[in-house]
Predict the 3D structure of the following.
Amino acid sequence: MKKVVVIICSIVCLCGLISPIHSQSVAYNQMYRTIIENGDTVWMVLMRPVYCFPPLKFKNSKEEKYYWRTVRDVKKTLPYAKLVYNALIETYEYIQTLPEKERKAHLKRMEKELFKEYKPVLKTFTYSQAKLLIKLIDRECNQSSFNLIKAFLGGFRANVWQTFGSLFGVSLKKEWEPEGSDKMLERICILVESGQL
């Protein structure tokens, strides 16, 4: 504990020595900013949030391997879930400006472009990574994949994809449960997003 206090005090003192003599009322940098009020300069260090979870205790090496394999899969699939979210927001905002006939044509064209661009990448995913991607899409978009497909492509197409997924044991209707069955996945996602894993 004493080491932490000494380190923090050292950083604060060094920041005071490094500060410029002539500064504006507010100066911005990626790591810090200074604010001058009534002749006093205050340094503010901008930091990312740090998340603390209790340490993990694995029953055996098999469980530990499963955990690290899940971490690897989350690191691979989470960026694609975020891409889906961004594409949905962008598409939704754009199609609101189009008349009804042009909306359907635009959605069909976009679907073909997305398949063309991401199909080779998604083919490299394992079965568990594909199931994880469906869960992470629900986490990012706050809706199940089934509801998203239904909203954009219609109920018939959503049921076709649900039937196709059920042949492989995947449900597009499954929802994200951060306090239930997906508690460990939520922890991994938070740590990956914050750069701690």
User: Anything to note?
Assistant: The first strand starts at residue 26 and ends at 28. The chain is about 65% helix and 10% strand. The beta strands are 26-28, 32-37, 40-45.
